[in-house]
Model the fold of this input.
Amino acid sequence: MSGVSAFSNEISLYDDEDEGLRIECSEKFVERIKRGLASGGLQSSAMRTQIAGTSNIHDWVEFDVLNGDFEAMKLAVIACLQQAGVTIKEDSFSSPGEKHVRLDLTNVSVFDK
Done:
């Protein structure tokens, strides 16, 4: 993880009634998040690239959380990020049929590949 930057990353957590539990984030966080999910008893699918990165920005990816519930997923992700020293600002959004929490990572640069 990089030092403080004027830019921030984000991780989006979804619970969609049609698609289930899903996480979208930079590929650089996938292994850390998957370890955190596993330590909380949650399983996850392989990642899928949504947006290809550049020479200095990682790919934007998504993967499914295969068991558990939204709150367990959110707590596992937040815990593993805090253990890594990442500071988080949480924003919640809801619409019919979908829960969405965006975790803004305030001390991690997007330009650090």
In short: Residues 94 and 100 are 6 Å apart (CA to CA). The beta strands are 9-16, 20-26, 48-51, 60-65, 88-95, 98-105. The two ends are 10 Å apart (CA to CA). Confidence is low (pLDDT under 50) at residues 1-8.
